[in-house]
Write a structure and sequence with these properties.
Blueprint lengths: L1 E10 L2 E11 L4 E5 L6 H8 L7 E6 L2 E2 L4 H7 E4 L11 H11 L4 H14 L15 H13 L5 E5 L7 H16 L4 E5 L3 H4 L4 E6 L2 E6 L1 H7 L5 H9 L10 H15 L1
Helix pairs in contact: 3-4, 4-5
Bound molecules: adenosine-5'-triphosphate and magnesium ion.
Adenosine-5'-triphosphate binds next to helix 1.
Amino acid sequence: MIEVSRLVKKFGSFTAVDDLSFEVRPGELFGFLGPNGAGKTTTIHILCTLLAPTSGAASINGFNCLTQPQEVRRRIGIIFQDPSLDERLTAWENLEFHGMIYHLPKGLRRKRMEEVLVLVELSERRHSIVKTFSGGMKRRLEVARGLMHQPQVLFLDEPTIGLDPQTRHRLWGTIERLSRADRMTVFLTTHSMEEASLCDRVLILDRGKLVALDRPQALVAQHRAKNLEEVFLALTGHDLRDNGASEAEISRASVRRLKRWR
Ligand SMILES: Nc1ncnc2c1ncn2[C@@H]1O[C@H](COP(=O)(O)OP(=O)(O)OP(=O)(O)O)[C@@H](O)[C@H]1O
Ligand SMILES: [Mg+2]
């Protein structure tokens, strides 16, 4: 359903996605993991036709993301990492606007709006202004919007970030149902290894490169690890990417300084 072949994305001299190749099967619940700055969002933006690759190719259900963007867009739904609702509008208006962009005829549009609101449990709040929603409600509304046009592939870039455990579990229930019952292909990023463990397969990306791709249980077994988090840390090493030193190194250095001072 998704094919990525030797994909490269450079920003100036910096390589964000580095010769990446993989495939996602129809109906698969696919986890796309990696430390901050690994290139996950960049890859998703290329797959969603929002960014052109420097080289290589990507396609959705056989349609090329670069040369057939309209065909691709019709088949995908996307929940962005950054909030993208119009906060001044009501939930209903946000969905209506999305349906119009996708040229859903009025009857079908209204039907879908009702359905997706039920799915994310926001029917009662349909006429509230989005600005008055909690973070979790906004996230659920974004999921509802992504599902309006019944996409074959749903991209979710950190869908559960900042949600309380209840909302997270409910949202995961919805995601799993869409994948298992409706056979929708789901491509998601998460920093929660607990969530990643629920995926059919996970890909681990580090500095733009693929470092692992397999079923979570298979990766845990291959690395003789206790869980996926151990595998992730073993493969991607250093805990913090943006700062040179790890927290442990910083605290070791300050202990040394303290000893010298005494
Ligand atoms: N438009 C841009 N111009 C320059 N550099 C960029 C641009 N977009 C992304 N990058 C860089 O590319 C790298 C990958 O960014 P990306 O957003 O894909 O990471 P990510 O894996 O989604 O990280 P996170 O887990 O923090 O969301 C980062 O180093 C980022 O600074
Ligand atoms: Mg990201």
